[in-house]
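#structure-requests
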Amino acid sequence: MDDDFIDFMENESYHKFSLTRNEALFLDDSCSIMIDMEGEGKPPLTMRGVSPSAGIAVPYDFIERLGHAIIFTTDPDNEGKEAEVTFSTSDLLAMREVAQSYVKIGEEPVGYNLKRKIAKCLHESTYTQTMTDSVAEKLLQGINTEL
């Protein structure tokens, strides 16, 4: 595996992410809960078969966050408001795998909207880290570290 990718995943960040009712339901329909088996070398199982063309296996906490979004967005008192959920970078990458750009629910381009939101979060995360590193380097250039 690429060393940059491994570093990226080890330094995972978290992102505020808003979901519409249809986006939350689509993602939930596309996921199966991942069950870790005891013992080394045993691959994780899922509660149901994962479709090779679309489904993903996700940990329980991901399902829990989606559940929050579903409850919030389907509550009539919220009148179409989007749910704000926090996802990790690896969660976003998993969501990216099922967010097919042509998927529509009713008139809502769910796949397209998810692709854009995910790309924006990932880009901002990478861009922000690059900018932070750049600013830190400039600040440190003026410091005499020889004591």
